[in-house]
């Protein structure tokens, strides 16, 4: 696949003209539009790369196969393909949720592409394990996947307000719900299964680039302990506990999100 095909496949957009490059990677059930609240703060000063994973947003759905995207590896390859197509180097990769681990895995494979990682609401493993609190029991995830299969719209309406966790701003939950239901139900369910059953804990010691971990104070998807676990096992990491609640601070609390990212980039 050549550069033009990759750009089209992942609906890649390049904004801004700054010397430093920020690559923004959306989380599960979302697309690049989720960054719209923080983009104005960075576009005048940075070159910004936006994209949709195959199966999300306005990506080429015909490029999706369960074989490629049956693990995080397929999404890692999307990131690396885009970086190669744009000939990127020394990128600041900003990943939300599962994209934090996708970016980390990509940086382990090709560290020369990355200057640093900024992780928003990251988790190395979403399931509870012996001596580890990920936030979910396996039965919780199984029920969620069953709901997606039986009533996709009902699943979206159930999960969106729980994940957003800002009831005083119902429009944000409604927008997230619309994002969820705009995706292909089969692909989204497979992405959910890959996300919630992933386990990247053994990979953490291999990460070599500097990392900022941004953890919300009350997140229904990722408990504080999961962020603290990452900080303890990533060799060059900084940990910031946000005042923001919910799993989408770049949407619900853009000012705080912008401030923490800018502070990290300036140091």
TrEMBL record:
Keywords per UniProt: Hydrolase
Pfam entry (one): Abhydrolase_6
InterPro entries membership: AB_hydrolase_1, AB_hydrolase_fold
Molecular function as annotated in GO: hydrolase activity
Domain AB hydrolase-1, residue spans: 24-258
Family the entry assigns: Belongs to the AB hydrolase superfamily.
Protein's name in the database: Sigma factor sigB regulation protein rsbQ
Protein source organism: Paenibacillus solani
């Amino acid at each position: 696949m050549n550069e033009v095909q990759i750009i089209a496949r992942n609906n890649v957009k390049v904004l801004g003209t700054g010397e430093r490059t920020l690559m923004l990677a959306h989380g599960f059930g979302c697309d690049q539009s989720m960054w719209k609240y923080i983009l104005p703060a960075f576009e005048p000063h940075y070159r910004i790369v936006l994209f949709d994973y195959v199966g999300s947003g306005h990506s080429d759905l015909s490029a999706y196969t369960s074989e490629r995207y049956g693990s995080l590896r397929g999404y890692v390859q999307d990131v690396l393909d885009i970086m190669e197509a744009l000939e990127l180097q020394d990128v600041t990769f900003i990943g939300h949720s599962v994209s934090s681990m996708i970016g980390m895995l990509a940086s382990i494979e090709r560290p020369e592409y990355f200057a640093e990682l900024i992780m928003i609401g990251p988790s190395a493993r979403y399931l509870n394990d012996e001596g580890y609190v990920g936030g979910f029991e396996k039965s919780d995830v199984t029920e969620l996947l069953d709901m997606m299969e039986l009533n996709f719209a009902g699943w979206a309406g159930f999960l969106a307000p729980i994940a957003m966790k800002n009831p005083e701003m119902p429009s944000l939950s409604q927008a997230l719900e619309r994002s969820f239901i705009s995706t292909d139900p089969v692909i989204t369910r497979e992405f959910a299964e890959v996300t919630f059953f992933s386990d990247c804990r053994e990979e953490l010691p291999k990460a070599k680039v500097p990392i900022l971990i941004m953890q919300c104070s009350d997140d229904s998807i990722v408990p504080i302990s999961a962020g603290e676990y990452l900080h303890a096992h990533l060799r060059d990491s900084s940990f910031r506990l946000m005042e923001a609640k919910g799993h989408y601070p770049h949407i619900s609390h853009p000012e705080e999100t912008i401030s923490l990212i800018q502070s990290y980039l300036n140091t």
